[in-house]
TrEMBL record:
Alphabetical list of CDD domains matching this protein: fer2
Keywords attached to this entry: Iron, Metal-binding, Oxidoreductase
Source domain of life: Bacteria
Pfam families for the chain: Fer2 (PF00111), Fer2_2 (PF01799)
Family matches, as Gene3D superfamilies: 3.10.20.30, [2Fe-2S]-binding domain (1.10.150.120)
InterPro entries: 2Fe-2S-bd (IPR002888), 2Fe-2S-bd_dom_sf (IPR036884), 2Fe-2S_ferredoxin-like_sf (IPR036010), 2Fe-2S_ferredoxin-type (IPR001041), 2Fe2S_fd_BS (IPR006058), Aldehyde_Oxdr_Iron-Sulfur (IPR052914), Beta-grasp_dom_sf (IPR012675)
UniProt entry tagged with the keyword Metal-binding: yes
Protein name in the entry: 2Fe-2S iron-sulfur cluster binding domain-containing protein
Domain (2Fe-2S ferredoxin-type): residue spans on this chain: 10-86
Species annotation: Actinomadura parmotrematis
Length: 178
């Protein structure tokens, strides 16, 4: 619906971190801007705003997505999980704990996107989805360092904490296998 100034708004319902939200959104706004500016969820970061760095990664209907590239209006009925929704109350997720244990961050700017991407990646691997480096075979791929690096390649870290990020994902994958 046009508000008279040429701006078109739409009513959407989106579930964010488990809470259903009915929102009136400008049809041009990205999911990232909706999360940060309208809902106050500032965990997802605006890095490049072109879908190239992964700082804005969230889980959209259970899959990794760059929130800067997703129009909010297109998410009507969707379920969004941000880094704020990964923990179980006051208890960190195993992946978040592994990031702390392995010192998998330096400045921390990319960490929310890394955490959401790694969460989605672990689910993809558990479901047996192959990556470009997964050897042919049956069952879930082995999450060795090469496999983790390939699957996390869409998330950049300017500080270069990749070695510790891979170690944290590997540790969390081992914890999930137990």
């Amino acid at each position: 619906m046009d508000s008279g100034d040429g701006v078109v708004h739409a009513e959407i319902t989106v579930t964010v971190n488990g809470a259903a939200r009915r929102l009136r959104v400008d049809t041009r706004v990205s999911l990232l801007d909706l999360l940060r500016e309208e809902l106050g969820l500032t965990g997802a970061k605006k890095g490049c705003d072109h879908g190239q760095c992964g700082a804005c990664t969230v889980l959209l209907d259970g899959r990794r997505a760059n929130a800067c590239l997703a129009l909010a209006v297109a998410q009507d009925g969707a379920e969004v999980v941000t880094v704020e929704g990964l923990a179980g109350g006051d208890r960190l997720s195993p992946l978040q704990q592994a990031f702390l244990d392995e010192d998998a961050f330096q400045c921390g700017y990319c960490t929310p996107g890394q955490l959401c991407s790694a969460t989605g990646m672990l689910d993809e691997a558990a479901r047996g989805r192959p990556s470009a480096v997964t050897p042919p075979g049956d069952g879930p791929p082995e999450l060795d360092d090469a496999e983790i690096r390939e699957r996390m390649s869409g998330n950049l870290c300017r500080c270069g904490a990749y070695v510790n990020i891979v170690a944290a994902v590997r540790a969390a994958a081992g914890e999930a296998a137990r």
